[in-house]
């Protein structure tokens, strides 16, 4: 018996998790929330993130309309990534995750 | 140059993601938010979840103090899972993910 009340939460939360899946998407969104970035700048801001992972994640974030990719007609061509309004709408999710992460650390590790 | 303002978000969000990692933990927390459940009841409420995955996820959720496992001294023994106060503190994260998931579906799929 599939509890519809429960499903009202599980289905949209699963939709969100399917888009934000993995360790890197939200940190990349956070980095771009602070301003447009070039590839290397994003790498510098997120410890442990490899070029290969970043390339893959940027493509997925772009396909979900959370970021845009702009190529500047210079030589060599300059590529810059920016957050979209839809990407910015994740700010409440990010704030709640930040607060809960801090709370969890205090509870589990005690600092 | 590691932007400390950016790190103030990325570190706790990563802490939260490390605990909530994967497709099943938040749906299991949602299910238990609606009341204590037995193993089979959780399986029924979350489409696609296998016994093997649920066993693994329940152990991890328990080790992070998000749920408790109670064995009733009946024959055969009855096992029931319940959410803890720490688990309940995820309600704001869950509400924001639900709202964003609904919003994302409207934007991307248009319904």
UniProtKB/TrEMBL annotation, chains A, B:
GO terms for molecular function: DNA binding. Keywords: DNA-binding, Transcription, Transcription regulation. Residues 6-109 form the HTH hxlR-type domain. InterPro entries: HTH_HxlR (IPR002577), WH-like_DNA-bd_sf (IPR036388), WH_DNA-bd_sf (IPR036390). Pfam families: HxlR (PF01638). Gene3D superfamilies: Winged helix-like DNA-binding domain superfamily/Winged helix DNA-binding domain. It comes from the Bacteria. This is HxlR family transcriptional regulator. It comes from Spirosoma radiotolerans.
């Amino acid at each position: 018996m599939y509890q519809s009340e429960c499903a009202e939460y599980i289905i949209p939360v699963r939709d969100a998790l399917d888009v934000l899946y993995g360790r890197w998407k939200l940190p990349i969104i956070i980095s771009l929330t602070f301003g447009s970035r070039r590839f290397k700048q994003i790498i510098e801001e997120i410890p442990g993130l490899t070029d290969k992972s970043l390339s893959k994640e940027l493509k997925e974030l772009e396909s979900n309309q959370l970021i845009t990719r702009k190529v500047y007609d210079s030589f060599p061509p300059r590529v810059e990534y920016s957050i979209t309004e839809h990407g910015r709408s994740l700010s409440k999710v990010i704030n709640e995750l930040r607060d809960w992460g801090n709370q969890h650390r205090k509870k589990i590790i005690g600092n």
